[in-house]
Amino acid sequence: MSITQQAYAKVNLYLHVCGRRENGYHELDSLIVFAQTGDLLHVEAADRLSLDVVGPMASYIDVSGPDNLVMKAALGLQKLCKTDLGAQITLDKRLPVAAGIGGGSGDAAATLKALCQLWQVFPDPLGLEELALSLGADVPICMKAHANHVGGIGEVITPLPPIPDCWMVLANPMIALSTPSVFKARTGGFTDAAPMGGEYTFATFIKALKERTNDLMAPAVQIAPEIANVLQALSVQPECALTRMSGSGATCFGLFECEKDAQAAEKALQKCYPKWWVSCGKII
Ligand code: C5P
């Protein structure tokens, strides 16, 4: 038996940093969505656990290191389910790493989901949530893989009414940014939580997003000034309704109401900036 699981790009449409816990983690207020572009994870039954990484971003992944989130997730699930079943895991790595779009977290979540199915194990939901959070603050939302409001350090997930149809173009200048260093570079106070609720049209959705910010953008631009060029390049694309950075960067996004405008922007940016990673997908 073999199973393929998508790990779509996680995007923070806005991100307010509302406080800091004693353990150093920050309290967040964020609307998180997923763009239908991302990594693919294949699992096949095997006697022991092993991992191969293929795809355009494979060379950026440390396959055998102790911090590899896919292997950590697989080992954590074996322990939680008290099983010694194995799996041959293949990660087709297409998203840039350390990019603010939850690549590693999405891969960890996809591993948990795919292996539960492969091994036919049904862990207690609370235990699975705890395992997900122990792997990383974004792993719980990546288990949901669709639009939700996120609070706490990433573990307080509140469902939302359906969001309007939107297309997204993602662009990364291929500069890896470490999340802790971006949080560390943040100066100033905290922003109030301003969760979005209710039903929106595309226009009112954009208006509500424009009233919010990504509080990690200024520190990220300080570390990687090229982010300002990415935002500028996205913002001049015809029909681009909003541009912003996701998470701790450096990936930025442009939002579009129509698929054809998003695809035209994707093509234009790929042509103009061949060294950047540019991809487009519907948001869910
Ligand atoms: O949980 P994860 O390993 O993804 O977090 C990486 C780092 O990002 C943390 O060590 C912390 O410095 C920072 N972080 C934070 N507050 C969050 C999420 C992450 O300060 N809510």
UniProtKB/TrEMBL annotation:
Every GHMP kinase C-terminal domain range: 219-274
GO-annotated biological processes: isopentenyl diphosphate biosynthetic process, methylerythritol 4-phosphate pathway; terpenoid biosynthetic process
Domain GHMP kinase N-terminal intervals: 68-143
Gene3D superfamilies linked to this entry: 3.30.230.10, GHMP kinase, C-terminal domain (3.30.70.890)
Annotated metabolic or biological route of this protein: Isoprenoid biosynthesis; isopentenyl diphosphate biosynthesis via DXP pathway; isopentenyl diphosphate from 1-deoxy-D-xylulose 5-phosphate: step 3/6
Binding site for ATP: P96, V97, A98, A99, G100, I101, G102, G103, G104, S105, G106
A Pfam family assignment: GHMP_kinases_C
Main enzyme class: transferase
EC id: 2.7.1.148
Positions of the catalytic residues: K10, D138
Keywords associated with the record: ATP-binding, Isoprene biosynthesis, Kinase, Nucleotide-binding, Transferase
Catalysed reactions, semicolon-separated: 4-CDP-2-C-methyl-D-erythritol + ATP = 4-CDP-2-C-methyl-D-erythritol 2-phosphate + ADP + H(+)
Function: Catalyzes the phosphorylation of the position 2 hydroxy group of 4-diphosphocytidyl-2C-methyl-D-erythritol.
Family under the similarity heading: Belongs to the GHMP kinase family. IspE subfamily.
Protein name per the record: 4-diphosphocytidyl-2-C-methyl-D-erythritol kinase
Species this protein is from: Terasakiella brassicae
Gene name, Swiss-Prot/TrEMBL: ispE
